[in-house]
Specification:
The complex is a heterodimer of chains A (about 280) and B (about 300). With about 280 residues, chain A is mostly helical. Chain A is built from 14 helices and no strands. Helix content of chain A is about 75%, strand content about 0%. The two termini of chain A are about 20 Å apart. In chain B, about 70% of the residues lie in helices and about 0% in strands. Chain B is built from 14 helices and two strands; from the N terminus they run ααββαααααααααααα. In chain B, β1 and β2 form a beta hairpin. In chain B, α9 runs antiparallel to α10. The two termini of chain B are about 20 Å apart. Classes of the chains: A mainly alpha (about 280), B mainly alpha (about 300). Chains A and B meet through α1, α2, α4, α5 and α6 of A and α1, α2, α4, α5 and α6 of B.
């Protein structure tokens, strides 16, 4: 996000129009989020008569009960484990395959690359039932791997493409020098390609982490015991249990999206760049 | 959001002969690297993507509860049942509606905001961040938050209605209104992503063209309509592609909002697949939905590519 444009002269009228429009839209985005966070501090009665304003009496216990309970942390932990495994596998498997497509000439390379790119064309949902049966027959139902492996597989097309395009644009001279010096492909991959590829590794990692952290349909189908649920499944269960006690549900939602929001604000540049570049660069 | 600009991708790969770029020296050990580096990806992809898709096509011809082997061959009966099922037809209609709204409401909104935020004005970064924020939240969380907003007893809608002194609408329980409530959340969640695409597009525009137009006396709107918009073509096509593909697989957000109800009025193809195929273990019927979705995705991807993305 480089600002290429210079500041533009604007009349006062344009300015007012601009900021009024932007503020209205920003309010539509922020108000639901804020009322959710504030709602978690209210009593149910307070929430009923006063959903917008500040709590009459701050009910910290709504939040602390969740924070001191085991449930919230267990779900966060499950999500973290699944996402970490997914990122690690996606990055390593896709980078290796992409390396062969970028640098090794072999018979059928184009065909194989196109084979992987088929995966870009349809969502995991299309094959969800056969996928469920496959995972069941492999004995992976209700395990982290039952979610991780399909997630990695469906992320491969995109990741291989991003890696390959990046690898191919690395300066040619590196190769010549390395190969003249008698460096083999593997050493080249490990000592030259990977260290030079940090930006694209970050992009692929961010895209697959966010996708996995937020994913719902695969865990929903592959997992069936609550002890292993990642948080998107967990909040649905929580909401089912506490039904209309909205103040608790709101506190729980707030706490589950809090990590995302904090990380987003801390690393906003990288995240926005990663998520949009992931889209544009392919 | 994995299946991004699929067809662009395929063209790149198969595409134009590379301009005698690489007279690359061959290093030692070509075979070992192929044997070590390719199979992991190949195996994972074949076992968990390609084979399930093929199996979906196979299972869709059977009536099967998922145990043992599929033996009860029913031909195309599953598809027949599907296209006579009113819930599935509603689902198709809803998916179509979501695409239309994404194209006619969300993308113009995104472009409008992008034109304001591509300039260096005070507070630009804050606004961009706020608008992008819903996109990074999980669909499930967004759905639950809006379920609260729409709640007729406790939610913001209740408060606003109370303030205006009208009867509280129970939007999500109304079979005529619910789908529009869902659509609003879709726009709320995804417009920021499209806005970012357009900001990137706007910033890569050649400014001199705009200056030339200004010197020729073009008004703001004229500049936008006849210079900026045509130059944004490739971004626009990309954004449309995402909107369409994303709309087709909408599921996560519907589940917390309505679960497909009331009276199946907010089903999409994927919620239908889940509610009728997965929870009832009707593997044949569910697979048939998968096949229909697959055919739609692939047809759209290829025809879109042919018609609109030729020049990119």
């Amino acid at each position: 996000m480089t600002e290429t444009r210079t500041a533009i002269r604007m009349s006062a009228g344009t300015k007012i129009y601009l900021y009024v429009s932007l503020t209205i839209i920003a309010a539509v985005v922020v108000i639901p989020l804020l009322t959710t966070a504030l709602g978690g501090f209210k009593t149910l009665g307070d929430l009923r008569v006063n959903p917008f304003g500040l709590p009459v009496e701050w009910q910290w216990s709504n939040y602390t009960d969740i924070l001191f309970g085991e449930r919230y942390w267990r779900q966060m932990m499950n999500s973290l484990i699944i996402a970490t495994l997914t990122v690690f596998l996606t990055v390593s498997v896709a980078a290796m395959a992409a390396f062969t497509f970028a640098h090794v000439k072999f018979f059928g390379a184009t065909f194989l690359l196109n084979y992987f790119l088929i995966g870009l064309m349809f969502p995991a949902a299309t094959a969800i039932l056969p996928l469920f049966i496959r995972i069941r027959d492999l004995g992976l139902l209700n395990s982290y791997w039952g979610v991780v492996l399909p997630q990695v597989a469906f992320g491969l097309g995109m990741s291989i493409l991003l890696f390959r395009n990046y690898f191919r644009n690395l300066p040619e001279e590196l190769f010549q020098a390395a190969f003249v010096d008698g460096c083999g492909y593997m050493r080249f991959f490990w000592h030259v390609t990977l260290p030079l590829s940090r930006p694209i590794i970050a992009t692929v990692a961010i895209v697959s982490f966010v996708a996995s952290w937020n994913s719902y349909i695969l865990p929903l189908i592959m997992l069936n015991s609550e002890s292993i649920y990642p948080w998107p499944l967990g909040i649905m269960v929580y909401r089912g249990e506490f039904g209309t006690e909205w103040q608790l549900v709101l506190a729980f939602i707030t706490l589950t999206i809090l990590p995302t929001i904090i990380v987003f604000f801390l690393a906003q540049k990288h995240i926005i760049a990663g998520l949009t570049a992931g889209a544009v660069k392919s | 959001m994995t299946n991004i600009s699929a067809t662009t991708a395929i063209d790149h790969a198969a595409g134009a002969p590379r301009v005698a770029r690489r007279k690359s020296p061959t290093a030692r050990g070509r075979l070992p690297v192929l044997i070590l580096f390719l199979p992991p990806a190949l195996l994972l992809f074949t076992i968990f993507v390609i084979m399930p898709m093929g199996e979906a096509a196979w299972y869709s011809l059977y009536r099967w509860d998922g145990y043992g082997l599929p033996e009860q061959f029913v031909g195309l009966r599953n598809f027949e049942v599907l296209f006579k099922n009113s819930a599935f037809l509603t689902a198709l209609k809803n998916n179509f509606l979501i695409i239309v709204v994404s194209l006619l409401l969300q993308i113009p909104l995104a472009i409008w905001l992008a034109t304001m935020l591509a300039n260096r004005i005070t507070g630009v970064v804050v606004f961009r961040l706020i608008f992008f924020l819903p996109y990074v939240l999980a669909d499930v969380a967004a759905g639950l938050i809006w379920r609260f907003v729409y709640d007729g007893d406790y939610g913001l809608f209740a408060a606003v209605a109370g303030f205006l002194g009208v009867e509280t609408p129970y939007v999500l329980a109304d079979k005529d209104l619910a789908i529009y409530a869902v659509l609003a959340v879709v726009v709320w969640k995804y417009f920021g992503f499209h806005m970012m695409l357009f900001i990137a597009g706007l910033q890569s525009l050649d400014k001199s063209v705009l200056e030339a137009a200004e010197i020729d006396g073009a008004t703001g709107w004229q500049k936008f309509r006849f210079v900026t918009l045509p130059l944004l073509g490739s971004t626009l096509r990309l954004s449309v592609f995402f909107a369409v593909v994303g709309s087709l697989q909408l599921f996560d957000m519907i589940m917390p909002l309505t679960g497909g109800g009331p009276f199946n009025s907010t089903q999409t193809m994927v919620t239908f697949l889940y509610n009728f195929g997965v929870t009832r273990m009707q593997v044949g019927l569910g697979s048939a939905v998968g096949v229909v979705l697959f055919v739609i995705c692939v047809t759209l991807a290829f025809s879109y590519k042919r018609i609109f993305m030729r020049h990119d």
